[in-house]
Amino acid sequence: MNNFGAKAYQKTSVATASKEKILLMLYEGAIQNLKKCKVAMEEKRIADKGVFLGKAQDIINELSNSLNFDVGGDLARQLESLYLHIFEQSTQANISNDPNKLAHCIKLLETLYSGWKEAVEKAKGTSSNTSIGERK
C-alpha cells in the first residue's frame, strides 16, 4: 500500500472508531512511539529520539486533556497525575538519555492500556453517553 493509501486508511479508521476504540488507539500510539524512542536513544539516533518522544508526549497530553472530571471524579484526577508523571519521566529520560526511565513509562502505559481494554470489553453491549476519557 502506498503512503497516501495508508494515510487515507488511517484517517478513515479514526473517523469511524468509537470513543473507546480511539482511547485504545491513543494508548497504542503512545506505547509504540515510546518504544521507538527508546530504541533510537539506545542507538544514539538523536533526531529520531526527539521525533518519537514528541509524538508520544502529544498523545499523553491528549489523553490528559480528554479527561472528564465531572464523571470520572477521583479516577480522572488520578489518571491526570499519572499522565503528568509519565510526561515528566519521559522528559527526564530524554534529558539524561536514560532508556530505563522510558521503560518505566512504557510499563505504566501498557498497564493502563490493559485495564482500559478489559473495561471496554466488559462494557460492550452497555450503552454509555459519557465516559471517563471524555471531557465535557
What does this structure look like?
This protein is an all-alpha fold. It has a single domain (18-123), classed as Flagellar protein FliS (Four Helix Bundle (Hemerythrin (Met), subunit A)). 82% of the residues lie in helices and 0% in strands. The protein has helices at residues 3-16, 19-42, 46-65, 69-96, 99-123. Helix 2 (19-42) packs antiparallel against helix 5 (99-123) and helix 3 (46-65) packs antiparallel against helix 4 (69-96). The longest helix is centred in the middle third of the chain and has 28 residues, at 69-96. Mean pLDDT is 87; it is low at 127-132.
* Counted beta strands: 0
CATH architecture: Up-down Bundle
Alpha-carbon distance between the termini? 38 Å
Count of helical regions: 5
Q: What's the CATH class label?
A: Mainly Alpha
- CATH homologous superfamily caption: Flagellar protein FliS
- Could you give a short account of the major beta sheet? none
Shape: globular
Order of helices and strands: HHHHH
Radius of gyration: 16 Å
CATH fold group? Four Helix Bundle (Hemerythrin (Met), subunit A)
Q: Percent helix among the residues? A: over 70%
* Overall tally of domains: 1
Strand residues, percent:
under 5%
Structural class, by secondary structure, is mainly alpha
Low-confidence stretches: 127-132
Arithmetic mean of pLDDT:
87
